[in-house]
Amino acid sequence: SIPLGFFGGIGGAAKSGILVKGSNFLEALNNVDTIVFDKTGTLTKGVFKVTKIHTLGRESEENLLEYAAFAESYSSHPIATSILKAYGKEINKSEIENYDEISGHGIKVSVKGKRILAGNKKLMNKENITYNVMDETGTVVHIAIDGNYAGYIVISDEIKDDAEKAVRELRGIGVKKLVMLTGDSKLVGETISRQLGLDEVHAELLPDQKVEKLELLEKQKQTKGKLLFVGDGINDAPVLARADLGVAMGGLGSDAAIEAADIVIMTDEPSKLVNAIKIAKRTRSIVW
Ligand code: ADP
Ligand code: MG
């Protein structure tokens, strides 16, 4: 049977916007010593701004942005939202055909009869497009039109106001290792990891590779503690399901993510993890 005190703990957590799906997860929260964060939407706001449009000749900047916006118009990825916002005009959906969103890569689609690719270098490699980009500090979205490289759009995200405090306080309550996983570039990943003072970062990972990396981190663990993964649910439901403790953040994540998670944080504040662990510790001191 479940000790009664757990219900108090789960109820208290719910009042703080933290939904714990069972007393076993509250108990597990007590023993978390490794936290693995997804980047976009979890440590960063997930609200990108277009900061640069770089064309390679043939197309104007306006046209490049227009093709990108049409290509992204069915995607709910934060990258898509930012490109559509920068474009700011109506999209005639009848000009879009054969839409294909490839997880961790980007979009493959026909726009106005042209074959458009909009995504990262993995997508370009997969489609045999030669690209050439200087080191950029933002996330780069490459565009190809009818099999030719056309240029790239740089978009930048910001670290959440709350993230640094969360990292500091998590260390303060005894979490030993803080890791970030991201599908974004090494440069972007390392910059954010350094700013936040994380212990490790693994970048350019596809959703499957995030699962593999998580399994490796679990294997490498020297201690008996639990590994908690926290993500915003976009492309990370498999990792949420695989972690000792999967936490979906933002409340508005996909149904698949909420389903896969053990704990759901209704706000988008990573510092709620600190509250969750504190509530778990307090509950244990009452129950045992
Ligand atoms: P993260 O690990 O940062 O949450 P994702 O796994 O969602 O990122 O995506 C990884 C990478 O895949 C992105 O940084 C981007 O390069 C590319 N990508 C994913 N979706 C899109 C899209 N709709 N348009 C362009 N690029 C995309
Ligand atoms: Mg993500």
UniProtKB/TrEMBL annotation:
Record's subcellular location: Cell membrane
Superkingdom of origin: Bacteria
Protein family membership: Belongs to the cation transport ATPase (P-type) (TC 3.A.3) family. Type IB subfamily.
Protein name listed in UniProt: Lead, cadmium, zinc and mercury transporting ATPase
Annotated organism of origin: Desulfosporosinus metallidurans
Top-level taxonomy: Bacteria, Bacillati, Bacillota, Clostridia, Eubacteriales
